[in-house]
Design a protein that fits this description.
Distance between the termini: 15 Å
Number of strands: 5
Helix content: 40-55%
Radius of gyration: 17 Å
Number of helices: 7
Strand content: 5-15%
Low-confidence stretches: none
Strand order of the largest sheet: 3-2-4
Length: 150
């Protein structure tokens, strides 16, 4: 049996949580376990991402978590981790506004400790989605940074 691929869970979770974008896409390198961000505008350039473009068996495009799940993840984080009442209100209001996820991210950047906490929370919360996708791709992996290693 092949050795499990070591994959950094926080990096994988960040990619799954990236949301749809016309500017970049994320790929998992099945050889190294690395998460690669590819700029869409440069994807078709001859040399820059030729390895990713020409080897789809090695570089698998990562799925995106649906918007409802991304919004719910942030709401659960605020309810579980944010203690300051005024910050809680601001973050929850941002999630109800237009451009909710972007507004939430902008507010979170004002609080570096919360931003770090959200990154860790997101990794654990998206671990089941990551495991499900890895299984569907028949990738045996060890998620580094997961609460429960498999």
């Amino acid at each position: 049996m092949a050795t499990p691929l070591d994959i950094d869970l926080p990096a994988l979770a960040e990619a799954l949580d990236a949301g749809p974008s016309v500017s970049c896409a994320y790929y998992l390198d099945r050889l190294t376990g690395g998460v690669e961000m590819v700029l869409q505008e440069a994807f078709d350039e001859q040399a820059l991402f030729a390895d990713v473009r020409n080897d789809p068996a090695r570089y698998r495009p990562l799925p995106l978590a649906p918007a409802w799940l991304r919004r719910d993840l942030r709401r659960r984080f605020v309810e579980a981790q944010v203690e300051a009442p005024h910050v809680r209100v601001q973050l929850l209001e941002a999630l109800e506004a237009r451009q909710a996820l972007g507004g939430f991210a902008r507010l979170l950047r004002l609080h570096p400790t919360l931003q770090e906490g959200f990154s860790a929370y997101r990794a654990q919360a998206l671990a089941p989605l990551a495991r499900e996708w890895l299984a569907s791709e028949k990738i045996r992996a060890r998620l580094l940074g997961a609460d429960q290693e498999e």
